[in-house]
Amino acid sequence: MKRAKYIGLLIINLLLFHPALAQNVKIIFDTDMDSDVDDVGALAMLHGFANRRDAEILAVMVSGLNPWSPGAVDAINTYYGRPNIPIGAVQRFGVYHKSKYARSLCEEFKHNAQLDENTPDATMLYRKILASQQDTGVVVVTVGDLTNLSNLLKSGPDQFSRLNGTDLVRKKVKHIVCMGGRYPADVDPNPWGNFKPDPRSTRHVVAEWPTRIYFTGGGAFADSVQTGRIFFQEKYKHTPMARAYQLFLDGWNRSWHHSADIIAVYVAVKGHLPYFKLEERGYNHIFEDGTNLWRLAPRDDRHYLVSEFAKDADPRRIAAKFDSLMAPGK
Protein backbone atom coordinates (compact mmCIF):
# COMPACT_ATOMS: atom_id res chain seq x y z
CA MET A 1 0.00 0.00 0.00
CA LYS A 2 2.80 2.39 0.92
CA ARG A 3 4.64 1.47 -2.27
CA ALA A 4 1.59 2.25 -4.41
CA LYS A 5 1.11 5.58 -2.63
CA TYR A 6 4.78 6.44 -3.17
CA ILE A 7 4.57 5.63 -6.87
CA GLY A 8 1.42 7.73 -7.19
CA LEU A 9 3.09 10.74 -5.55
CA LEU A 10 6.14 10.27 -7.75
CA ILE A 11 4.01 10.36 -10.90
CA ILE A 12 2.19 13.48 -9.74
CA ASN A 13 5.48 15.23 -9.01
CA LEU A 14 6.85 14.28 -12.41
CA LEU A 15 3.80 15.72 -14.13
CA LEU A 16 3.88 18.91 -12.06
CA PHE A 17 7.56 19.67 -12.41
CA HIS A 18 8.07 18.26 -15.91
CA PRO A 19 5.08 19.59 -17.91
CA ALA A 20 6.32 18.01 -21.16
CA LEU A 21 5.65 14.60 -19.64
CA ALA A 22 2.02 15.52 -19.05
CA GLN A 23 1.42 17.20 -22.40
CA ASN A 24 -0.53 15.32 -25.03
CA VAL A 25 -2.31 17.97 -27.06
CA LYS A 26 -5.25 16.70 -29.07
CA ILE A 27 -4.98 18.33 -32.49
CA ILE A 28 -7.22 18.76 -35.50
CA PHE A 29 -5.06 19.94 -38.40
CA ASP A 30 -6.79 21.97 -41.14
CA THR A 31 -4.74 22.40 -44.33
CA ASP A 32 -5.12 23.17 -48.03
CA MET A 33 -2.21 20.80 -48.87
CA ASP A 34 -1.81 22.11 -52.38
CA SER A 35 -0.40 25.55 -53.27
CA ASP A 36 2.62 25.59 -50.93
CA VAL A 37 4.83 22.88 -49.52
CA ASP A 38 5.14 24.08 -45.92
CA ASP A 39 1.83 22.28 -45.32
CA VAL A 40 3.80 19.08 -45.89
CA GLY A 41 6.47 20.16 -43.40
CA ALA A 42 3.81 21.15 -40.88
CA LEU A 43 2.09 17.76 -41.06
CA ALA A 44 5.49 16.06 -40.80
CA MET A 45 6.25 18.07 -37.65
CA LEU A 46 2.87 17.13 -36.21
CA HIS A 47 3.72 13.46 -36.72
CA GLY A 48 7.07 14.13 -35.06
CA PHE A 49 5.25 15.48 -32.02
CA ALA A 50 2.92 12.47 -32.09
CA ASN A 51 5.94 10.14 -32.15
CA ARG A 52 7.16 11.88 -29.00
CA ARG A 53 3.69 11.66 -27.44
CA ASP A 54 3.44 15.43 -27.26
CA ALA A 55 0.39 15.41 -29.52
CA GLU A 56 -2.41 13.20 -30.74
CA ILE A 57 -3.69 13.81 -34.27
CA LEU A 58 -7.46 13.46 -34.09
CA ALA A 59 -8.13 14.30 -37.75
CA VAL A 60 -6.85 16.19 -40.76
CA MET A 61 -9.22 18.46 -42.69
CA VAL A 62 -8.57 19.67 -46.23
CA SER A 63 -9.85 23.19 -46.90
CA GLY A 64 -9.44 23.28 -50.70
CA LEU A 65 -11.05 21.57 -53.68
CA ASN A 66 -7.94 20.06 -55.27
CA PRO A 67 -9.01 16.39 -55.64
CA TRP A 68 -5.49 15.09 -54.97
CA SER A 69 -4.98 16.87 -51.65
CA PRO A 70 -6.75 14.34 -49.36
CA GLY A 71 -4.72 11.51 -50.88
CA ALA A 72 -1.52 13.48 -50.40
CA VAL A 73 -2.40 13.92 -46.73
CA ASP A 74 -3.06 10.21 -46.41
CA ALA A 75 0.21 9.32 -48.13
CA ILE A 76 2.07 11.29 -45.46
CA ASN A 77 -0.03 9.84 -42.63
CA THR A 78 0.52 6.33 -44.00
CA TYR A 79 4.28 6.83 -44.23
CA TYR A 80 4.36 7.77 -40.55
CA GLY A 81 2.40 4.66 -39.63
CA ARG A 82 -0.95 6.38 -39.02
CA PRO A 83 -3.11 5.40 -42.02
CA ASN A 84 -6.29 5.45 -39.95
CA ILE A 85 -6.30 9.15 -39.08
CA PRO A 86 -9.70 10.44 -40.28
CA ILE A 87 -9.52 12.87 -43.20
CA GLY A 88 -12.29 15.27 -44.22
CA ALA A 89 -12.52 17.87 -46.96
CA VAL A 90 -14.68 20.76 -48.05
CA GLN A 91 -17.25 19.48 -50.53
CA ARG A 92 -18.79 22.59 -52.08
CA PHE A 93 -18.03 26.28 -52.55
CA GLY A 94 -14.39 25.88 -51.63
CA VAL A 95 -11.27 27.27 -53.28
CA TYR A 96 -9.34 25.33 -55.92
CA HIS A 97 -5.55 25.70 -55.98
CA LYS A 98 -3.11 24.02 -58.32
CA SER A 99 -0.44 21.87 -56.69
CA LYS A 100 3.05 20.91 -57.81
CA TYR A 101 3.13 17.81 -55.65
CA ALA A 102 -0.28 16.51 -54.49
CA ARG A 103 -1.00 14.30 -57.51
CA SER A 104 2.52 12.89 -57.54
CA LEU A 105 2.26 11.85 -53.89
CA CYS A 106 -0.97 10.03 -54.67
CA GLU A 107 0.54 8.27 -57.67
CA GLU A 108 3.91 7.38 -56.15
CA PHE A 109 3.13 6.52 -52.51
CA LYS A 110 0.72 4.25 -50.71
CA HIS A 111 -2.54 5.85 -49.67
CA ASN A 112 -6.28 5.20 -49.53
CA ALA A 113 -7.30 5.72 -53.15
CA GLN A 114 -10.96 6.12 -52.18
CA LEU A 115 -10.12 9.48 -50.64
CA ASP A 116 -9.63 11.07 -54.02
CA GLU A 117 -13.36 11.08 -54.76
CA ASN A 118 -15.10 9.94 -51.59
CA THR A 119 -13.53 11.99 -48.82
CA PRO A 120 -15.93 12.61 -45.91
CA ASP A 121 -17.38 16.08 -45.56
CA ALA A 122 -15.16 18.16 -43.28
CA THR A 123 -18.05 19.80 -41.42
CA MET A 124 -19.59 16.45 -40.56
CA LEU A 125 -16.22 15.04 -39.48
CA TYR A 126 -15.47 18.12 -37.37
CA ARG A 127 -18.77 17.72 -35.55
CA LYS A 128 -18.26 13.98 -35.04
CA ILE A 129 -14.73 14.38 -33.67
CA LEU A 130 -15.49 17.36 -31.44
CA ALA A 131 -18.60 15.75 -29.96
CA SER A 132 -16.54 12.74 -28.88
CA GLN A 133 -13.89 14.78 -27.03
CA GLN A 134 -13.68 16.18 -23.52
CA ASP A 135 -14.80 19.77 -22.99
CA THR A 136 -12.13 22.31 -24.04
CA GLY A 137 -9.97 19.34 -24.96
CA VAL A 138 -9.13 20.09 -28.60
CA VAL A 139 -6.71 22.51 -30.25
CA VAL A 140 -7.40 23.33 -33.89
CA VAL A 141 -4.53 24.53 -36.07
CA THR A 142 -5.45 25.91 -39.47
CA VAL A 143 -2.82 26.53 -42.14
CA GLY A 144 -5.17 26.74 -45.12
CA ASP A 145 -8.32 28.59 -46.16
CA LEU A 146 -10.85 29.18 -43.38
CA THR A 147 -13.72 27.65 -45.35
CA ASN A 148 -14.08 24.55 -43.18
CA LEU A 149 -14.10 26.54 -39.95
CA SER A 150 -16.74 28.95 -41.24
CA ASN A 151 -18.90 26.01 -42.30
CA LEU A 152 -18.46 24.45 -38.87
CA LEU A 153 -19.63 27.61 -37.11
CA LYS A 154 -22.71 27.75 -39.35
CA SER A 155 -23.60 24.07 -38.89
CA GLY A 156 -26.71 22.97 -37.05
CA PRO A 157 -27.50 20.13 -34.62
CA ASP A 158 -27.12 16.61 -35.98
CA GLN A 159 -26.75 13.00 -34.87
CA PHE A 160 -23.44 13.80 -33.20
CA SER A 161 -24.48 16.78 -31.08
CA ARG A 162 -27.57 18.79 -30.30
CA LEU A 163 -25.46 21.96 -30.24
CA ASN A 164 -25.11 24.33 -33.14
CA GLY A 165 -21.62 24.81 -34.54
CA THR A 166 -20.66 27.88 -32.54
CA ASP A 167 -21.76 26.35 -29.25
CA LEU A 168 -20.05 23.05 -30.07
CA VAL A 169 -16.79 24.89 -30.71
CA ARG A 170 -17.17 26.91 -27.52
CA LYS A 171 -17.73 23.72 -25.54
CA LYS A 172 -15.06 21.47 -27.04
CA VAL A 173 -12.24 23.66 -28.42
CA LYS A 174 -9.58 25.08 -26.13
CA HIS A 175 -8.22 27.51 -28.72
CA ILE A 176 -7.25 27.77 -32.36
CA VAL A 177 -3.91 28.60 -33.98
CA CYS A 178 -4.47 30.35 -37.29
CA MET A 179 -1.72 30.89 -39.87
CA GLY A 180 -2.58 33.71 -42.24
CA GLY A 181 -1.55 37.23 -43.19
CA ARG A 182 1.70 39.07 -42.60
CA TYR A 183 2.62 41.12 -39.56
CA PRO A 184 3.18 44.01 -39.24
CA ALA A 185 1.58 45.17 -42.48
CA ASP A 186 3.55 48.43 -42.63
CA VAL A 187 6.81 46.46 -42.69
CA ASP A 188 5.63 43.68 -45.00
CA PRO A 189 2.79 45.28 -46.98
CA ASN A 190 2.26 42.68 -49.71
CA PRO A 191 -1.23 41.17 -49.37
CA TRP A 192 -0.62 37.46 -48.94
CA GLY A 193 -1.66 34.36 -47.11
CA ASN A 194 -4.61 32.13 -46.45
CA PHE A 195 -7.08 34.92 -45.78
CA LYS A 196 -7.55 36.19 -49.35
CA PRO A 197 -8.82 33.13 -51.31
CA ASP A 198 -12.06 32.96 -49.27
CA PRO A 199 -12.38 36.40 -47.64
CA ARG A 200 -15.99 35.90 -46.57
CA SER A 201 -15.08 32.84 -44.51
CA THR A 202 -12.03 34.62 -43.11
CA ARG A 203 -14.06 37.58 -41.90
CA HIS A 204 -16.72 35.29 -40.46
CA VAL A 205 -14.28 33.13 -38.49
CA VAL A 206 -12.15 35.99 -37.18
CA ALA A 207 -15.26 37.86 -36.03
CA GLU A 208 -17.33 34.98 -34.65
CA TRP A 209 -14.97 32.24 -33.45
CA PRO A 210 -15.89 31.85 -29.76
CA THR A 211 -12.51 30.82 -28.30
CA ARG A 212 -9.05 32.37 -28.30
CA ILE A 213 -7.31 32.67 -31.67
CA TYR A 214 -3.51 32.70 -31.81
CA PHE A 215 -2.52 34.22 -35.16
CA THR A 216 0.77 33.45 -36.85
CA GLY A 217 1.85 34.60 -40.30
CA GLY A 218 4.25 34.55 -43.18
CA GLY A 219 6.63 37.07 -44.68
CA ALA A 220 10.06 37.93 -43.34
CA PHE A 221 9.29 36.35 -39.96
CA ALA A 222 8.61 32.90 -41.44
CA ASP A 223 11.20 33.28 -44.22
CA SER A 224 14.01 33.60 -41.69
CA VAL A 225 13.28 30.12 -40.29
CA GLN A 226 14.56 28.07 -43.21
CA THR A 227 13.41 24.47 -42.89
CA GLY A 228 13.18 21.43 -45.14
CA ARG A 229 16.86 20.65 -45.55
CA ILE A 230 16.27 17.45 -43.62
CA PHE A 231 14.32 16.03 -46.57
CA PHE A 232 17.28 16.44 -48.93
CA GLN A 233 19.43 14.06 -46.91
CA GLU A 234 20.16 10.81 -48.71
CA LYS A 235 18.38 8.61 -46.16
CA TYR A 236 15.11 10.54 -46.51
CA LYS A 237 15.02 11.14 -50.27
CA HIS A 238 12.47 8.37 -50.95
CA THR A 239 9.82 9.73 -48.57
CA PRO A 240 6.65 11.54 -49.67
CA MET A 241 7.84 14.66 -47.82
CA ALA A 242 11.12 14.73 -49.74
CA ARG A 243 9.29 14.21 -53.02
CA ALA A 244 6.94 17.11 -52.29
CA TYR A 245 9.79 19.48 -51.40
CA GLN A 246 11.78 18.39 -54.47
CA LEU A 247 8.86 19.03 -56.81
CA PHE A 248 7.89 22.33 -55.23
CA LEU A 249 11.43 23.75 -55.09
CA ASP A 250 12.40 22.57 -58.56
CA GLY A 251 14.07 25.54 -60.24
CA TRP A 252 14.42 27.54 -57.02
CA ASN A 253 18.11 26.55 -56.66
CA ARG A 254 17.82 25.95 -52.93
CA SER A 255 17.06 23.14 -50.51
CA TRP A 256 14.96 24.98 -47.93
CA HIS A 257 11.63 26.77 -47.63
CA HIS A 258 9.90 29.14 -45.24
CA SER A 259 8.22 27.89 -42.06
CA ALA A 260 4.90 29.74 -41.92
CA ASP A 261 2.73 26.64 -41.40
CA ILE A 262 5.42 24.89 -39.39
CA ILE A 263 5.57 27.73 -36.85
CA ALA A 264 1.79 27.45 -36.41
CA VAL A 265 2.03 23.74 -35.59
CA TYR A 266 4.81 24.37 -33.09
CA VAL A 267 2.72 27.04 -31.34
CA ALA A 268 -0.31 24.73 -31.33
CA VAL A 269 1.57 21.96 -29.55
CA LYS A 270 4.20 23.77 -27.47
CA GLY A 271 3.03 27.37 -27.19
CA HIS A 272 5.06 30.42 -28.18
CA LEU A 273 7.97 29.93 -25.77
CA PRO A 274 10.94 29.79 -25.86
CA TYR A 275 11.29 31.00 -29.44
CA PHE A 276 8.59 33.62 -29.95
CA LYS A 277 6.89 36.63 -28.38
CA LEU A 278 3.17 36.89 -27.70
CA GLU A 279 1.34 40.14 -28.53
CA GLU A 280 -1.72 40.52 -26.31
CA ARG A 281 -2.74 44.02 -27.34
CA GLY A 282 -5.19 44.81 -30.10
CA TYR A 283 -7.00 42.69 -32.67
CA ASN A 284 -6.75 41.35 -36.21
CA HIS A 285 -8.77 43.51 -38.59
CA ILE A 286 -9.81 41.73 -41.79
CA PHE A 287 -10.77 43.87 -44.77
CA GLU A 288 -13.42 42.85 -47.30
CA ASP A 289 -10.82 41.54 -49.76
CA GLY A 290 -9.20 39.30 -47.15
CA THR A 291 -6.19 41.51 -46.48
CA ASN A 292 -5.54 42.17 -42.82
CA LEU A 293 -4.01 44.63 -40.38
CA TRP A 294 -3.12 44.04 -36.74
CA ARG A 295 -4.43 47.07 -34.84
CA LEU A 296 -3.22 47.74 -31.31
CA ALA A 297 -6.61 49.09 -30.21
CA PRO A 298 -9.24 48.29 -29.23
CA ARG A 299 -8.43 45.06 -27.43
CA ASP A 300 -10.20 41.86 -28.46
CA ASP A 301 -9.77 39.35 -25.65
CA ARG A 302 -9.93 36.48 -28.16
CA HIS A 303 -7.07 37.67 -30.39
CA TYR A 304 -3.36 37.01 -29.81
CA LEU A 305 -0.45 37.38 -32.21
CA VAL A 306 2.80 35.43 -32.56
CA SER A 307 4.94 37.25 -35.14
CA GLU A 308 8.24 38.17 -33.48
CA PHE A 309 11.19 36.26 -32.10
CA ALA A 310 11.92 36.14 -28.39
CA LYS A 311 15.04 37.84 -27.11
CA ASP A 312 18.22 36.00 -28.14
CA ALA A 313 16.25 33.54 -30.31
CA ASP A 314 18.33 32.43 -33.29
CA PRO A 315 16.28 31.57 -36.43
CA ARG A 316 19.00 29.16 -37.57
CA ARG A 317 18.80 27.18 -34.33
CA ILE A 318 15.03 27.24 -34.49
CA ALA A 319 15.18 25.86 -38.03
CA ALA A 320 17.52 23.08 -36.91
CA LYS A 321 15.14 22.19 -34.08
CA PHE A 322 12.14 22.22 -36.41
CA ASP A 323 13.96 20.03 -38.94
CA SER A 324 14.73 17.53 -36.22
CA LEU A 325 11.02 17.41 -35.33
CA MET A 326 10.14 16.89 -38.99
CA ALA A 327 12.69 14.09 -39.47
CA PRO A 328 10.93 10.99 -40.82
CA GLY A 329 11.92 8.70 -37.96
CA LYS A 330 9.79 5.64 -37.40
What features would you describe in this structure?
By secondary structure, the chain is α/β, with parallel strands linked by helices. It contains 14 helices and 9 strands. It has helices spanning 2-17, 19-22, 38-51, 69-79, 102-108, 115-118, 122-131, 147-154, 165-172, 199-208, 220-223, 240-248, 260-270, 315-326, and strands spanning 25-31, 55-62, 87-89, 138-142, 173-182, 212-218, 283-286, 292-295, 303-306. The strands form 2 sheets. Strands 3-2-1-4-5-6-9 form a 7-stranded parallel beta sheet, with helices on both faces. Helix 4 links the parallel strand 2 (55-62) and strand 3 (87-89). The protein starts with a helix and ends with a helix. Residues 5-22 have low confidence and may be disordered.
Concise structural overview:
The protein is of the alpha/beta class. The protein has one domain (24-326): Alpha-Beta Complex (Inosine-uridine Nucleoside N-ribohydrolase, Chain A). The chain has 14 helices and nine strands.
